[in-house]
Structure formats: structure tokens, C-alpha cells
Amino acid sequence: MTEALQIAIDAALAAGKILKERRDNFGVIKYKSEIDPVTEVDLACEKKIIDMISARFPDHGFLAEESNKSRNLSSPHKWIIDPLDGTVNFAHGYPCYCTSIGLESNGQIELGVIYNPSLDELFVAEKGKGAFLNSKPIKVSNISDLKRSMLVTGFAYDVGHADNNNLDHFENFIKSCQAVRRPGSAALDLCYTAMGRFEGFWEIKLHPWDMAAGKLLLEEAGGRLSLLDGSSFDIYKRQVLATNGHVHDAMLKILKKGKPAGALS
Ligand code: IPD
Ligand code: CA
Ligand code: CA
Fold this sequence. Notes:
The structure is a single chain. The protein has 265 residues and is an alpha+beta fold. The chain folds into two domains: 3-137, Fructose-1,6-Bisphosphatase, Chain A, domain 1 (2-Layer Sandwich); 146-255, D-Maltodextrin-Binding Protein, domain 2. The protein is built from seven helices and 14 strands. It has helices at 3-21, 40-56, 87-91, 167-174, 186-194, 208-220, 248-257; strands at residues 29-33, 36-39, 61-64, 77-85, 98-105, 108-116, 121-126, 131-133, 136-137, 150-153, 179-181, 200-204, 224-226, 239-243. The longest helix has 19 residues, at 3-21. The radius of gyration is 17 Å and the shape is globular. The termini are far apart. Bound molecules: D-MYO-inositol-1-phosphate and calcium ion (2 copies). D-MYO-inositol-1-phosphate is lined by residues 82, 85-87, 154-156, 184-186, 203, 206, 210.
């Protein structure tokens, strides 16, 4: 295992320890917009992760959700961090949240670590070396019929007033597959698609920290990623269609019936 991967795992587990300890004591909640919360625990986890990684890799860059300014972004190595993905769930005591850490080197995601402290599930992937849940290899499901598929999605914090709010796609999918879920953690949605709990995941208006680690997990587990129009996936393009590969084209067809995501920034 590379040193970078070991540090990513240690940092994700350290954040998980904070999430467990402060589950019922998350302090003050602030709001970034009307319904977009940040707790003291988001900030504490992010600080812990950046302190641990930067102590070993002081020249590396960081793109982390809660930091006011991201650091060293000209470095070829950039850690992309969501310290707490699923803050609304965390703040309500609903045990579906995680920490997500990805390392992008020269434009490629080289490793991804996602830790769900509620289930003690540690997802790890390294480029070219496979994807693992608690050290066991994972792969996507082989279901190819949408009527036998459980899909997953999410909604951005502007869902209440934005025109392009994903509700059109939600309606189209819920009428054409077995079930659609909205658990509230995009990073876990990607992990669960990677390990076959879901057949496909789509969402718009995501950020690189929601997708960096999960993208690699899904790829290494044999899945397929694209933008909603089928073009090449890019973690900076604010949207994702991530599937087991077998339902990808069928999902693209349904997505065509709704509003095009267009360029999101
Ligand atoms: C959110 C979650 C959610 C998704 C939202 C994200 P946060 O991240 O991943 O599932 O639907 O779009 O913003 O705010 O809990 O880190
Ligand atoms: Ca997030
Ligand atoms: Ca977050």
C-alpha cells in the first residue's frame, strides 16, 4: 500500500472517530443557504484530515468543501475532501453519512477512500488495483433490466426554487424502474452502486468533493460513468450518471426525456 493511501485511510478513520464521538453533540449549526447546513463537526473533521495529510505532504494542494480558501492548487497533487457528506442526515441523527477523500495527481484520481462510521464500512480504491469494502473486493451488480433495478439520486439545496431541479428525471425514473432512493450522501450513493446495492445513480449540481473518491471506486468496481447526456465524465462538471454499465444506455434514454442538464457551474 502506498504511503498516500495509508494516510488517506488514517485520516478518514480519524474523521469517523470524530463523527462517532460527536453524533449527539454536533454543536452550532450554521446555514450556507436557506437549507444547506454546516455543523461544527464538518469543520472539525476537515481540520483533522488536512492537518494529518499536510503534516506528511506539506507541498500538496487541497480542495476541501468547508475551507475558505483551498491551498496550493498549483501543486500536481491535490487532495479533494468532503469531511462530512450527508450533513443534513448527520444533524438529524439519521445514520447515513461519510467522509470522502480523493487524491488527484496530474489530473487523474489516483486513490479514493470513503468511510461510513455508522456501519463501519471503509471503501478503498487505488487506480488500477481494484475497489474494496473492508479489504474485500467489490464489483457492480449484473442486473440489466430497469424494472429490476434500484436507482438512487439526490437533490441540490436549491431544489425549492431552481427550475433545473432534477424532479423531472426523478418522476421519469420512478415510473420506469423497480425503485428510486434518495439517501442523502452522494459519496455513499457512488460506493453502493460500486458494490451492487444500487444499479445506477444520477444527480446534478454536485461538487468535485462529492464525487472524486467515489468516481474511482465505481470505475475500479467495473462500473461506467458519464455526464447526463452520455459525454465524458469529469468531476468538475457538476453532474453524474454512474451505473453498473448494464443499465447505462437505458438510463441515458430516460434522461433524454427530461430537461438537459446543460453546462452547470
Ligand atoms: C450533499 C449530499 C447529498 C446531495 C447533495 C450534496 P453535503 O452533500 O451528497 O446526497 O444530494 O447535493 O450537496 O452537503 O451533505 O456534503
Ligand atoms: Ca457533499
Ligand atoms: Ca459536506
